[in-house]
Amino acid sequence: MAKEPLVLQESLENTFASNVFSDAATRTRLPKNIYKMLRRTIDDGLPLDPAVADIVANAMKDWAIEKGATHFTHWFQPMTGITAEKHDSFISPTPDGRVIMEFSGKELIKGEPDASSFPSGGLRSTFEARGYTAWDCTSPAFLKDNTLCIPTAFCSYTGEALDKKTPLLRSMQALSKEAVRILRLLGNTKVTRVTTTVGPEQEYFVIDKKLYEKRLDLILTGRTLFGAKPPKGQELEDHYFGNLKERIAKFMAEVDQELWKLGVLAKTKHNEVAPAQHELAPIYTTTNIATDHNQLVMETMRKVAGHYGLVCLLHEKPFAGVNGSGKHNNWSMSTNDGQNLLEPGNTPHDNEQFLLFLAAVIQAVDEYADVLRVSTANPGNDHRLGANEAPPAIISIFLGEQLTDILEQIENGGATSSKVGGELKLGVTTLPALPKDSTDRNRTSPFAFTGNKFEFRMVGSSASIAEPNTALNTIVAEILSRIASRLEKAKDVDTEAQNIVTEIVKKHKRIIYNGNNYTDDWVKEAEKRGLPNIKSTVAAIPTLISEKTVKVYEKHGVLSKAEMHSRYEIFLEAYIKTINIEALTMLDMAKRQILPASLEYAGKIAATLSSLKTVASKSSTADKLLAELTSTIDSFGKNIEALEAASAGNGHSNDVLKHAEYYRDVVFTTMAKLRVDGDKLEMMVDANIWPLPTYADLLFRV
Ligand code: ADP
Ligand code: MG
Q1: How many CA atoms lie within 13 A of 235 on its CB side?
Q2: Whether the CB of 226 sits within 6 Å of ligand 1
């Protein structure tokens, strides 16, 4: 890796989490009994005593001010998918005209941002603007730009969730409750809490800022709306894990430094498959913190890129024809006595606890595949899922050879053995023999078991990971709850556990697929198996308000029917707005950049032709070019008119779903046609006249 300044390396142990009001900081600054009371809330989920909040607030303020902070903010995650903050300073006037720095428990616990400008999906009318933020003490406060940021949940005056964190916390609580029930029945008397853990791998593109600024599409929509295929794409596969360019290496080093200060366990960084594409992976942590951290990762990458004349693109599909970006959501469950519930151990075939939890995940994913699908749906991700790119829109589970074999044994009457990986000999005596994993990887699966966790790969690169994890926790909690109820009634828990696993394998094995998910054969096979193939965001969103989904979310106290309906509205409206902005941006570029340039060039050829003709030497090349150019310009012009008509909206409807369908089926489709002509023009027009940086510029000139 790039040379990082030595000083920083040496002091890393000191700088790590230096901008976090961490557990260590909390412990040293709080009286022992207060610290204990706070920990009980964080670790055991007990309600927080308001007296404790006052003392914590004061300690937090002192810590922050010592580090130069002047302001504090309740940091929250509204339905926009990004974070929001409203800064207040610590100052408080004294009677003698001075100020002192103050921060009370009340200010720590509760904030009151005006909620009327955040999406609520009809949960609240604008005249009822009150919204509240509530301190989430399970995620540590941190310092950013001289501001103490306090992670909070955001709700309406009537207590409905207006954010992504509230349902996530509720789903973690639900899963914990059901998992503990099962562990108790299996004889574990110590465990009191189960937390879900997540390590999200973040993919992104980095391009040159000067070039970026010449592209209205990138500025306004985050993706290129025009752009012909470059002579070189990703076909040489020379970028994946390739050497980092110096400017990129410096950028990455600073990102790491900044993230480490914020306590984010940034661990791995490398080039991805597509040119200009990279990945950052942190070490996993509690889902709630991982979600907050992932927001900080995205924010930090965007900010730091600017220091190097770069721009970080988090859109799922900035460039057509090269891979898009996703987030691999590595997920597991762990107990507060230190066990990973998805750890198979050496002999998974006789690991009852592992098999039960594994079976629960299998059933949950099969029964609620549509819930997982919608949790990853957004307009950007439509260019990946179901659009001939990784991963497909069909959800299936990859288990690998060892577990698949065990489940087959179970189905056929009982598992008696576990295949082992053995040793890998490289045929050179000086190279070590490597212990072989029991299973190879499968990069095409949307939901893959990878040793001791599941990797959910459908999540979009720009999205918050709150939704997919809320979905995952909720549906797994549901199956665990059913399993627990059966075990509670059973005379013999072990026999019943075996019965349950066998039944689940038989009933839900259709969701298991170890082959190549990118083939047409799989699409056909999946259809035969009855697995849903939901191809677009608009088609996915109605799942949110189906009776089945609402029932499971309500049962586990994750989201109420009203909250689900509000999300349905918010997501559909966001879809409509996104496509509308893209359409208008395309029109702007088409009319004010591409068309004028193309006409200018056509005029030049025409002039050349007529001057050539006067010397009586006809140019058939120029003739042909002019003919093709003018006909493409005409077609382009017609498609401009078509897109103008489409986005002016004859098909608009008061029904938000129909309206969104119109945008998908009419506006979006017309955009694709306009792009074909625009890209054709790019291949014809003189490079000196063409007004936009090309794909080759954007992808290779970093
Ligand atoms: P890949 O081979 O998929 O690129 P990486 O090593 O880049 O894998 O990322 C794997 C991720 O999975 C890391 O973020 C890692 O911390 C995370 N992970 C490992 N164990 C667990 C676990 N028990 N729960 C959640 N995430 C985990
Ligand atoms: Mg991965």
Answers
A1: 6
A2: no
pLDDT value at residue 2: 44
Q: Which helix (H) or strand (E) holds 201?
A: strand 194-208
Q: Which of 545, 635, 542 is nearest to 590 (CA)?
A: 635
Q: Which mutation among 269, 278, 279, 284 tests ligand 1's pocket best, with the greatest number of atoms within 8 A of CB?
A: 284
* Ligand 1 neighbour 195 (Cβ under 6 A): no
Mean of the per-residue pLDDT values of the chain: 91
DSSP code string of 48-91: PPHHHHHHHHHHHHHHHHHTT--EEEEEB-BTTSS-B--EEE-E
Looking at residue 663, the DSSP 8-state letter turns out to be: I
Q: 271: CA distance to ligand 2 center in Å?
A: 13
Phi, psi of 474 (to 5 degrees): -70, -45
Q: How confident is the model at residue 638 (pLDDT cuts 50, 70, 90)?
A: very high
Report the distance separating Cα 28 and Cα 124, nearest Å.
Answer: 43
Instruction: Measure 694 CA to ligand 1 centroid, in angstroms.
Output: 36
Q: Is 460 in the pocket of ligand 1 (CB under 6 A)?
A: no
Contact predicate 408/509, CB 8 Å: no
Q: Are 178 and 170 in contact (CB under 8 A)?
A: no
Task: Tell me phi and psi for residue 123, to 5 degrees.
Answer: -70, -20
**Ligand 1 centroid, distance to 323 Cα (angstroms):** 21
Cα(330) to centroid of ligand 2, in Å? Answer: 8
Give the pLDDT confidence of 258-287 residue by residue, as tens digits: 999 999 999 888 887 778 999 999 999 999
- Predicted structure pTM score: 0.94
Nearest CA to ligand 1 atom 5: 281
72-83 confidence digits (pLDDT tens): 999 999 998 889
Q: How far apart are CA 357 and CA 263, in angstroms?
A: 31
pLDDT digits (tens, 9 = 90+) for 607-629: 988 887 665 556 688 889 999 99
From the CB of 281, is ligand 1 less than 6 Å away? yes
